[in-house]
Amino acid sequence: MNISTSTTATTTSKNQSQIEQALQNNAAGVLMNSVTKKYGSFTAVEDLTLEIPAGYYCCLLGPSGCGKTTALRMIAGHEEVTSGDIFIGGRKVNQIPAAKRSTSMMFQSYALFPHKTIWENIEFGLKMQKVREAERRTRVGEMLDLVGLSHLGDRKPDQLSGGQRQRIALARSLVTRPQVLMLDEPLSALDENLRVRMRTELRKIQKQFGMTFIQVTHHVEEAFSLSDQIVVMTHGKIDQVASPEELFDTPASQFVAKFMGDNNIFQGKVINCVQDSDLDLIQLEVEGLGTIFCRGHGVVIGTEAACSIRPDLMFVEPYSPDLPAKSSLAANQISARITAVEMTGYVTRVCLMAESTGQELLYKVRTEDWRSNSLHEGQLVVLSWSKDNCIFLAY
Amino acid sequence: MDKYKRSLSYYFLAAFFGLFVLFLYGPMLSMFLLSLQGTKGTLTFPMRGFSFYWLQSVFAEQRVGNFVEAFGRSFSLAIIIALITVVFSVLAGLAFRKQFKGSSAIFYLTISSLIVPSILVSLGIGILFSLINLPVQWFSSALAGHLTWTLPFAFLIMLGIFGRFNPAYEEAARDLGASETTTFWEVIFPLIAASVVGVALLGFTLSYDEFTRTSLISGATNTLPLEIFGMTTNVTSPALYALGTLTTIFSFALIGVTLFTIQFLSRRQIK
Fold first, then answer.
1. Does the pLDDT of residue B89 top 60, yes or no?
2. A245-267 pLDDT per residue, tens
3. Which residues of chain B have a Cβ shorter than 8 Å from any chain A Cβ?
4. What is the rounded CA–CA span in Å between residue A258 and residue A393?
5. What's residue B188's pLDDT?
6. A96 φ, ψ to 5°?
7. Subunit contact B175:A104, Cβ cutoff 8 A
8. A111, B172: Cβ pair inside 8 Å?
9. Contact, A70 vs A22, CB < 8 A?
């Protein structure tokens, strides 16, 4: 992989290739304004408003059927909007066909033309732009260099490995110097190890050229590791737009908290809300479990709501009859029984069941730390966590 | 795997398949043999000598007509049919990838035309031609008759071909700035080329051996199947078999060439 050599080239501008110079500062932002897409009576995307700044790596994240692919395809021009407007770099593109949008799309299965060689595949977009033969040769050559596959120009796509195909698809999409690159689940066809490597490579190229990348994925880890901005979608609507850190620390809804994986969620009624430093201190009454203290704002007393706690921010101690589990401002506490212990590598997942309600809970701990205690399956324990780590979820 | 013992049902099924092949090719084989009869040979076994006399006689003028000319007509007609069929079925296939108003009505109308008895189609075209005062000819009315047969078939096949075609290829082409026409010639057509050759062969063979639909509307001159049919009622010599042998060889050669072409083209397609 000679991606690294290209990266060093950016620091010394005289070594910079034509394509790098052309791609840099070419990035455009995308704005979707109240965009709706209907297929007959089915609404795939509903009243979507989203701004993706130029130079951002944005991931549209959500379960299948949430409308994320439809949203991407509308930006690329492969689907028409039913209503609303899409702007790319300030230009309204509703009526502009995909071919003229100065965007480029990398398809899920890459859609490399099977009857053309790798070279012809990459050259295709330039031919369509009526770029002269000599310039085409330089640019295709540079692109192949960039993805480190110069020696494969004569091959056909079916003679390439999955990772190579992915890089060629990327080269084919970038060679036309798009302002926005769209990626439809670009890593889903690859196996786990390769996926992580290609992920790093995608991010590297995006940063190197300062391009706008918009990617569709249902993989939370992928979205976290790649994005500047994550858009969580469900049922054709946006649930939350946030940076990976923000999303991880403060999910905005029960759906987001659940979709991110293993967060423990408690549903209850707001019984008290006190203004405190940054965030209000909220008291949630959970049936069967008692009071849980959490942080949030915009809270109406008496409403049904929920709170979420990350499984790695909890503590587990052996249960002792002298000190029954009870939440206080110092710490939320509940008693639970260990139902299973799964060592998954660096992390051990401990499955628990709340003693009073039977709710399933999860505790995650470094495998090293877990080994140093004497807890075991079937044991009754006290789970505790700080109110400051417990996130209030209004819906 | 050498010690692998085959079950009894294997031998039973193999024998059954052998019988099937025998029934399939037996008649053809006996026709081949009888076309090599000696000059005094008759329409039935036993063979009386061996000669190429009857094979040569095919190329000579016969009492009932001229095989060479009939072959020429059938061949030209089949080529024209194959071309028209390919062009229109590909266009129809492309059209049916998009949902348009009345598409399902057109679909069922097209398919149901296949179950109309062939002889009625022939009769109908004959009546129509006499109504509009045009003479029936092999290259006009018979051409129409053949198209009623080949087009619906080819249309169905093209629907299947396009059903398997991944639309992402076209989208990628459009995404890279290709116009609709360029997308078709640069991406779609190369990918379906092998199948299109298959459709052409289908159109050709359906037309080449079509009898019923042609029977009433070929006009004053016969196509090859009509010529052969006419011969079965009049000719009592092995020349009949010789003709059968020659057309069969021609058909096999054609199939061979087509398969080779398809293989060549599909090597450029995705596996």
1. yes
2. 988 888 888 888 888 878 888 88
3. 166, 168-169, 171-179, 182, 186-187, 190-191, 268-271
4. 11
5. 92
6. -90, 125
7. yes
8. yes
9. no
What are the φ and ψ backbone dihedral angles of B104, each rounded to 5 degrees?
-75, -35
pLDDT band for position A8 (50/70/90)? very low
- Rounded mean pLDDT of chain A? 85
Contacts by residues A222-227 (CB-CB < 8 Å, ≥ 24 positions apart): A222/A59, A222/A187, A222/A195, A223/A59, A223/A61, A224/A248, A225/A199, A226/A57, A226/A59, A226/A199, A226/A202, A227/A57, A227/A58, A227/A59
- Residue A358 token pair: 């039977």
| Fold (CATH) for A3-249 | Rossmann fold (3.40.50)
Region B23-43 average pLDDT:
83
Instruction: Determine which of A141-155, A341-355, B233-247 has the lowest per-residue pLDDT on average.
Output: B233-247
- Residue A91: helix, strand or coil by DSSP? strand
Rounded to the nearest 10 degrees, the angle between the axes of helix B141-163 and helix B118-131 is 130
Has residue B106 been placed in a domain? yes
Residue B99 lies in a domain: yes
Name the residue of chain B whose CA is nearest to A176's CA.
B176
Q: What is the ipTM of this complex?
A: 0.77
**Closest Cα to residue A141, out of A165, A114, A171, A116?**
A171
What span, in angstroms and rounded, lies between the C-alpha atoms of A36 and A44?
Answer: 8
Q: Which domain holds residue B135?
A: 66-225
CA distance B178 to chain A (A): 6
Domain A262-393: assigned CATH number: 2.40.50.100
Tracing tokens 């779609």 back to the chain, one arrives at B188
Task: Report the C-alpha gap between A125 and A176 in whole angstroms.
Answer: 6
- The pLDDT, as a whole number, for residue B3 is 58
Number of inter-chain CB pairs under 8 A, A vs B: 66
pLDDT band at A1 (very low <50, low <70, confident <90, very high): very low
Q: Give the C-alpha separation, B172 to A76, whole Å.
A: 11
Query: What's the CA dihedral at A200, A310, A383, A335 to 10 degrees?
Result: -130
User: What value does the mean pLDDT of chain B take?
Assistant: 84
How many structural domains comprise chain B? 1
Q: Is the pLDDT of residue A291 over 60?
A: yes
In chain A, CATH 2.40.50.100 covers 262-393
B270 to chain A: closest CA residue: A114
Comparing CB atoms, the residue among B168, B182, B271 nearest residue A128 is B182
Strand partners, A361: A352
Residue B270 has a pLDDT of 45
pLDDT digits (tens, 9 = 90+) for A127-165: 998 989 998 998 999 889 888 888 888 899 989 888 899
Q: What are phi and psi of A60, to 5 degrees?
A: -90, 115
Pick A367 or B222 by higher pLDDT.
Answer: A367
Q: Where are the beta strands (DSSP E) in chain A?
A: 30-39, 42-52, 57-61, 83-88, 91-92, 103-106, 180-184, 212-217, 229-234, 237-242, 264-274, 280-286, 290-296, 304-309, 315-318, 332-343, 347-354, 360-366, 380-385, 391-393
The predicted structure's pLDDT at residue A5: 37
The C-alpha atoms of residue A36 and residue B150 are separated, in whole angstroms, by: 44
